[in-house]
Amino acid sequence: MCAHNPPCPTAMAPDREAARPVAHRPEQGWSLLCNGVLVFEDTGELLPDGRIVAPHRPIALTVGSAA
Questions:
Q1: How far apart are CA 5 and CA 64, in angstroms?
Q2: Distance between CA atoms of 37 and 7, rounded to whole angstroms?
Q3: 10 near 35, Cβ under 8 Å?
Q4: Which segments of 1-67 are extended strands (E)?
Q5: Mean pLDDT value across the chain
Q6: pLDDT band at 5, cuts 50/70/90?
Q7: Tens of pLDDT along 21-30?
Q8: Is 3 left (phi over 0), alpha (psi -120 to 50) or beta?
């Protein structure tokens, strides 16, 4: 699907999110990348073959105060 030079990572590559966006709908919370991956605002993904990648946000750590 990608016609860029150098080509973007494929949809199955570990760095697939580095592909260029071809459609972006921030009001709906998604972007379509040139490799066919649909990336959602919550960091979830829908791959071209229909597989789902669960959201993978970093876990926020809270720092407790010492008493």
A1: 49
A2: 15
A3: yes
A4: 21-25, 30-33, 38-40, 45-46, 52-53
A5: 87
A6: confident
A7: 999 999 999 9
A8: alpha
Rounded-to-5 percentages of helix, strand, coil across the chain: 5, 25, 70
pTM of the model: 0.78
How large is the average pLDDT for residues 32-50?
95
> Hey, what are 23's tokens?
């459609």
What is the rounded CA–CA span in Å between residue 60 and residue 67? 22
Q: How far apart are CA 47 and CA 38, in angstroms?
A: 6
Question: What type of residue is 41?
Answer: E
* Residue 13 reports pLDDT greater than 80: yes
* Distance, CA of 41 to CA of 53 (rounded, Å): 13
Token pair for residue 18? 């580095």
| Half-sphere exposure (Cβ direction) of 52: Cα atoms closer than 13 Å | 5
